[in-house]
Amino acid sequence: MKGEAPEPHDPAAPAQPVAAEEYSRDYFLSRCGGAEFFELYGPKVLKPTLAYCLSRAALAPGLRALDIGCGRGELLYQIKLTGAVGVGTDFAGPAVAIARQVSGCEVIETDAKVLPFPDRSFDRVFLLGIMDHLHRWELEDCFREIRRVLKPGGFVLIHTCTNRLYYKVWTYRLRLLARALRACGLSLRVPSPPRSSDDQALRAFFGSIGWRAEVEPRPNWKMVIDELYGRDLPAGVPIKPAARWRVRVYKALLWWPPLNWVLARDFFCLARPAGVSGPAARR
Questions:
Q1: What pTM did the predictor assign?
Q2: Which of 202, 87, 197 is nearest to 143 (CA)?
Q3: What CATH number does the domain containing 130 carry?
Q4: Strand pairing partners for 88?
C-alpha cells in the first residue's frame, strides 16, 4: 500500500517545513556538502561522510536501498556499483534532475514524510544530513514512513552533521571570537548557531518513537582519512590527512569516552525499529 499523508498538525505551530525552493541547482552543485568532491571526481569518489556510511551498509547484489534526500545522487551511483538496487528521493526538483543524470537510478520527487512505496520495499534506508533539516514532528512522520517501507531485518543508516556539545557548548563562541580577531576587530555579523543535537538527544528521540539506535561519535575526518580511502589517496583530495604523530596522539589521548562525545563533530547512527533483529551492519 502507498504511503498516506500524515494527520495535519496544529496550524498555529511555529515549526514549519523548509521550502523546497530554497534548494536550487546552484546550491546542490556548488554549496551543498561535498560539492568540492563532486567537482573533482563526480560520483566516483564520495565525500568522507558518504564513504563511511556506505561502508557500514553491508550492501550486496539483490538488496534494495533507499536514499532519502539523495541530493546529487553520488551515493546512489555507488550503491549501484555494489549490485544493489538504489532508489532515491528528494523534495527539491533540481536535486531530482541532477541525481537521475548522475546515478542512472530511479529518483522520485517527494516529501520524506510521505514515501510513495509499498510496505516492506527496502533492505536499507539512508538518511544522511537530513535530520538536521527537519523539525521534531517532521522526523516522527518520516520515521513512521521508514518503518513502513523497511523490510524485516533491515536497518537505517543515519548521519547528523552537528554535535551540540562541539558546536554550541564548547567551541561555538570560541570560534566566533577567533573569527573576529582574525578580522582585526571588525564588527562581524554573528551567524545563527546550527540546529544540532548530541548523543543523548538522539537516543532519547529514537527511544520515544520505539526504535533502537547505535549512536557513534565520528572524529575529524583528517584523523581517519587513510581508513576510508587507503594510503593511496585520490589525486587532489580536498581533505588532507593529519600528520601520523597527530593521529596517534589524538587517538591515544583524546578519542576516549567521554571526550570523544564532546569532540565529535558529527554522529553516525544505525537504527532499527525496536523488537526487530538483524545481522550486525559492520562487515
A1: 0.82
A2: 202
A3: 3.40.50.150
A4: 67, 107
